[in-house]
Design goal:
- A hairpin with a 2-residue loop joins strand 3 and strand 4.
- The longest helix is centred in the first third of the chain and has 15 residues.
- The strands form two sheets. Strands 1-2 form a two-stranded parallel ribbon.
- The chain has 135 residues and is of the alpha+beta class.
- It contains four helices and four strands.
Length: 135
C-alpha cells in the first residue's frame, strides 16, 4: 500500500511538495525498497524517518509534522488514495480563503483486498454522508 500512496503523491498535478514517510517500526527493508523505486521521479522530495518503536499513527504523524518546515501539511496514510488534483484544489481553496486554516474534503471509504494481480474493491461508500461542515 505504501507504493500506491507514494504513486498518488507523485501523480499530483501540483508538484511543489515534500513527502516525509514515517516508518512506525515497520519493515525497514520494504520501505527502503519503495523509496528506492521512486527516488528518481521524486527528485529529492522524498525522505524516510524510521522509528524503532511503534507508538501509533497519531504519534508517528506528529513526528512527521515536526520534521518539516512546509507552510501547509497533509497526512496521507498508506491506505489512502488521492485524486490527482487533490493538492492543487485544496491549496487553491486555502489561497482563496485566507481566513481559513484548514480544508476538509469528502471521503469515500473503500473496502478492498489485495490479490496476486492487484487490489479488488468489495464496497465503496461515503464516510459521514450527512456531514455538511466541520468546526
Amino acid at each position: 500500500m505504501l507504493d500506491r500512496a507514494v504513486q498518488d503523491v507523485l501523480a499530483q498535478t501540483r508538484q511543489d511538495w515534500e513527502l516525509v514517510i514515517i516508518n512506525d517500526a515497520g519493515d525497514r527493508g520494504g520501505v527502503e525498497e519503495v523509496v528506492a523505486r521512486h527516488a528518481v521521479e521524486a527528485d529529492g522530495r522524498l525522505r524516510v524517518i524510521h522509528r524503532e518503536t511503534s507508538t501509533g499513527m497519531e504519534a508517528a504523524s506528529n513526528h512527521g509534522l515536526r520534521e518539516t518546515a512546509a507552510p501547509t501539511v497533509v497526512v496521507h496514510d498508506d491506505d489512502d488514495t488521492w485524486h490527482a488534483t487533490f493538492l492543487q484544489e485544496s491549496l487553491a481553496h486555502l489561497a482563496a480563503h485566507p481566513e481559513r486554516e484548514a480544508v476538509v474534503v469528502r471521503t469515500l471509504i473503500v473496502h478492498e483486498r489485495e490479490t496476486a494481480t492487484g487490489f479488488v474493491e468489495d464496497a465503496v461508500f461515503p464516510s459521514w454522508p450527512e456531514l455538511e461542515g466541520v468546526r
